[in-house]
Every structure is written in C-alpha cells, then in structure tokens.
Amino acid sequence: METREASPAHFLIKIDSFCLLEKCGIDKYETKEFAAGGYNWKLIIYPNGDDNVGKDCSDYVSVHLAMGPTSSLPANWEVNVVFSIFLFNQISANYLSSLGITRRFLEMKSQWGLSKFISKKILLDPSNGYLVDDKCVFGAEVFVIKKEAVTECLYLKDVDIPYKHDFKISNFSKLQAAWESEKFSAGDQDWNICLYPKGNGKGAGRYVSIFLHCIEPKNTVKACFTIWVKNQISDEHDEGTATNWFSASTSTLGWPSFVEIATINDPKKGFIVNDSCLLDIEISVLAVSQ
C-alpha cells in the first residue's frame, strides 16, 4: 500500500453512516457502473470481509473490481488491466492506494480484488482519518492494457554443416565495375557476393573490395561467413571471416580492403591464373529474429 495526493481517475464513492451497513444487514455493496478503457466496471465492497475467501477476512474490509455486463463481448474474451483501489484520508487529505494490480479478466473470472484491503480496526479509528463522522470515500482507477505490443521471436540454429559454394570469375582483367555472383540459398535466405576489382568506399583505388549481400531479407538474420580468394599455385589463400546481423536496413557486409589490387594482379602471387579468379564462401545462419 502507498499514499498519493491525486484523486482516482475513474471512480469515487462516498459512504455515509458506514457503521450502519452491518446493522442494516448489508454485507456486500455493489456500486453503480463506471467506464474506463472502453469497458464498464463496478466496485464491490464487503464491509465485514468477503466470506467466499475465508473466515480470516472477517476483521477486514474487502474491495473487489468487477466488470459490468459482458454479454456483448465476443466469445473467449479477455481483458487485461492494471487497477488500483483507493481510500481517502480525511485528515491528511491524501489517498491510501493499493499498488497497481495487473489481472486478466475472463468470462470465468470477471472480478478481482483485495480480500484484506484495510483492517476494520484501522478504519474504525477516527484518528487514522479514513472514517470521520462515520463517512468514508473509496475510489478506483482502471487502465486497460491494449494488445498493441510488438512481438519478436528469435530462432537459434545448431549448424553442424555450413553451406559452401565456389565461384569462378572469368576475364577478371576486363571487369570495370562490380562483379556479382549468382544468388545462392543458405538458412532459408537468398545471398550473393559482390566484388569490386577497383575497390569500393575506403578501399577504392588500392584494394579489391568484397561484400556478402543478403537479398531482400525476410527477417533479421545472424550469419557467420568466410570468403576466400583462392591462391591457384599454393595454399596461401586470402580470406576474411565475420559474424554479423543482416536485416533490411543492413543487408550488405564485408571488407572494403579485402586484398590489395597490386597483390591480386601480380602473376607471381597466384590469385589470377588465365585471367580467372576463384572465390569460395562458407556460411552458417546462426539465428533468425522474426
């Protein structure tokens, strides 16, 4: 329980002659309906505790929040709310309040509340300020949780065998702009490789740039990949390895400075033989976020 200055946003009920409720045989009082969050609600006040909960509530005042008529609601309806119950302190001019209670209201359970909202001993003592001249004020706030949450599902993949593919780039010396591989599929996603023989971005003019491109990503994909420029006369291949997330906003990742242009074009280095370059890729899709 806590106290606050602001009045309840949705409902207040003033009860005159509270102590006469028991004398008049009123063990349960249902307030008029009030609207909040697009639904109708009411408070149910048990001045001698809710007998349905147990005999140990007889020394307390129970207060429940209940939905109004639900016949107009669709089948299998549910309403999720955060609600608070209030009691006005007439001496300090603030409200005793239950902390926000989150509950799901259903056809089979259309009311929730506090079986021990306040002890009768505290309430009936005028010096506490809750019952003055036998008058008290209860209140309620009800905030409906709208189903507008953005959902995401992360699928993790245990990849034992990565996807592998090799490419042959013929007439390498005649390439002017970018070379793009044929598309291939890995992890239910289409990919291709882009190679810039004259460099791209920071690598322009000095390096060959190589990038892996995720074609029209359906989801956000995390992939681990290695690209090799194969050395055709030795095992000294040039390679790059990276692990990154690919998405619609970041669909291309790689290396602006993969290998120096002078190195790849040097016949003694073995990367270009008969004007052909060999490119290999190994890729594993590790996770998919939807």
TrEMBL record:
Domain MATH: from-to ranges: 8-142, 162-283
Highest taxon of the lineage: Eukaryota
Database matches in InterPro entries: MATH/TRAF_dom, TRAF-like
Pfam families cross-referenced by the UniProt entry: MATH_2 (PF22486)
Membrane spanning residue stretches: none
PROSITE patterns: MATH (PS50144)
PANTHER family associated with the record: TRAF-LIKE FAMILY PROTEIN, UBIQUITIN CARBOXYL-TERMINAL HYDROLASE 7-LIKE ISOFORM X1
Entry protein name: MATH domain-containing protein
Native species: Erythranthe guttata (Yellow monkey flower)
